[in-house]
Design brief:
Blueprint (H helix, E strand, L loop, with lengths): L2 H40 L11 H54 L1
Length: about 110
């Protein structure tokens, strides 16, 4: 294939990718319209006409914040535990490899 063939192939691939991108946009737009239509036409929305007093709203917010804080703490504990476990594993692998290396050096 000559240089012109490579360029033509590149242009064709760019056109095909552009067509795929446009078709995905159209598909996503249709899905968004259907979802928004279902909320608008059927009158269903999970938070429609929901009135919450200030005290109850503050209580909900503090509860959510507390749950998030607990979740973040648990995630931190998991990360630290896995890091320590990984470090111990690397340590023992390093010791094993060092012993094998020393055995090989002693042979020569």
């Amino acid at each position: 294939m000559s240089f012109g063939g490579h360029v033509l192939d590149m242009v064709n691939r760019m056109k095909a990718n552009d067509a795929l991108r446009k078709s995905r946009r159209a598909k996503n737009q249709r899905i968004r319209e259907k979802l928004s239509d279902s909320y608008e036409h059927h009158g269903y929305h999970p938070f429609k006409d929901k009135i919450v007093e200030r005290e109850e709203l503050e209580r909900i917010k503090t509860k959510i914040r507390a749950e998030l804080k607990i979740e973040q703490r648990n995630n931190l504990i998991r990360v630290v535990f896995l890091t320590i476990l990984f470090s111990i594993g690397l340590y023992f692998i390093g010791i094993f490899l060092w012993q094998r290396f020393r055995e090989l050096v002693d042979i020569f």
